[in-house]
Amino acid sequence: MKKMKKGVLVGMIILLIAALMVSCASQPATTTGGGESNAGASSQSDGENPPTNPDAKVIKVGFSWSDAVTMFYQAYMDYLVEAARLHEEETGVRIEYIDTIANRDVNKQASDIRDLITQEPVAIFIHAQDATAIQSSIKEVRDAGIPCIMTIRTERQDEPLLADAYVGLDAFDQGYTTGQYMFAKMEADGIIGKDIKLIDLLGNFTDENSINRSAGMRKAADEIGGVTIVQEVESEWDSDKAQTRLTAALIAHPETNALFIGSDFLVPACQIAMQKADMWKPYGDPGHVYFGGQDVYPEGYEMLATLYMDASTVWDHWLIALDAVQLIQDIVDGKPIEYDHFVKGRVITQENVFTAEMIWARDYLTPEQQKIVDAAEAAR
Predict the structure, then answer these.
(1) Where does CATH 3.40.50.2300 sit in the chain?
(2) Over the stretch 311-358, which tens digit does the pLDDT of each residue have?
(3) CATH class of 171-315+348-379
(4) pLDDT digits over 282-301, tens only?
(5) Radius of gyration in angstroms for the set of CA atoms belonging to the chain, rounded to a whole number
(6) What is the DSSP code (8-state) at residue 25?
(7) I want to staple 369 with a disulfide (CB 3.0 to 4.6 A). Which of 181, 240, 337, 365 is the partner?
């Protein structure tokens, strides 16, 4: 198995950091490239992973997280820490992250951002809970003279005031590339556009990533021509709602032969719904429903390996973390900030799932998932 080359050596320590940040969501938690972590003023690192350079120049960077309870966010946090550690080794500049977690509460996020402003970091990164509600916080950060950087999801692009930059994946391209691959595969198997009947399982109708991924998939559908989207289902990024609503959609549309989901952490919910409808079958079996995901969570990685999912465009946390750290250094150096830091994801398929490099899910498989993936690889 090919794992991510950087970050693995400190994986266990970094995972502990992420867990600490989640458990201390009600107060800022500080992490550094040297591996230190402290939540509140009195908690200190255990000293097992001291700063790389005790004489390093320290810069503070604020991070306002909407949510940090899934492995997706933990992975990004981990890679930001590792990217900062490598940056310190190369430059002698230590990046200290001040993390706040809003627990999906827009009012708490607004309060968290005000608290970050008072600490005068060189920049504030925002993972917004709501792309519209975040506008007032963007204004407050910019009015304070602090560069405001959106990450993971953009703010609404039709608002009068935008952040200084966005660092993250191109969500439209993510949906487009998955859709393009899935539809081409169906055509190669003799299922032409007019015969494709697809359910689009989104996240939130107000979530920019969810909207853009769906729009990208629909562009791919338009290009192939004739694709029928039989139902659009809102999961609200909630597994229980995804399962219930997809179950109802499959009952209403037994002709469904394709499914696109806004993020493949919803795969377990989809599996239950599809099993109830007798539609959960691996590729090659009669009745297989062609399945496109997004992000390549460990759940999605397992299903690509076992042939239940056909394609998912990976969220490249490592490349995004490196870009974020370089942007931080550019800000410190006084360089102009460009808004567009969109990273293009790679389509992971049943064909390249075991060979593609730098897939974050590989570092976060559970022991049971690892066992299943290893068995699937050995059976190929």
Answers:
(1) 11-163, 171-315+348-379
(2) 999 999 999 999 999 999 999 999 999 999 999 999 999 999 999 988
(3) alpha beta
(4) 999 999 999 999 999 999 99
(5) 21
(6) T
(7) 365
Q: What is the mean pLDDT of residues 19-43?
A: 36
Q: Which of 121, 172, 129 shows the shortest CA–CA distance to 151?
A: 129
- How far is 215 from 179, CA to CA, in rounded Å? 10
pLDDT tens by residue, 153-170: 888 877 778 999 999 999
Give, to the nearest 10 degrees, the angle between helix 71-91 and helix 11-23: 120
Q: Rounded distance, CA 224 to CA 144, Å?
A: 48
For the domain with range 11-163, which CATH number is right: 3.40.50.2300, 3.40.50.1100, 3.30.200.20, 3.30.457.10?
A: 3.40.50.2300
* H-helix segments, the chain: 11-23, 71-91, 106-118, 135-143, 171-188, 208-224, 239-252, 267-276, 298-305, 317-332, 367-379
CA nearest neighbour of 173 among 119, 203, 209, 138: 209
Quick check: helix, strand or coil at residue 277? coil
Cβ neighbourhood burial of 206 (10 Å; 0-12, 13-18, 19+):
middle
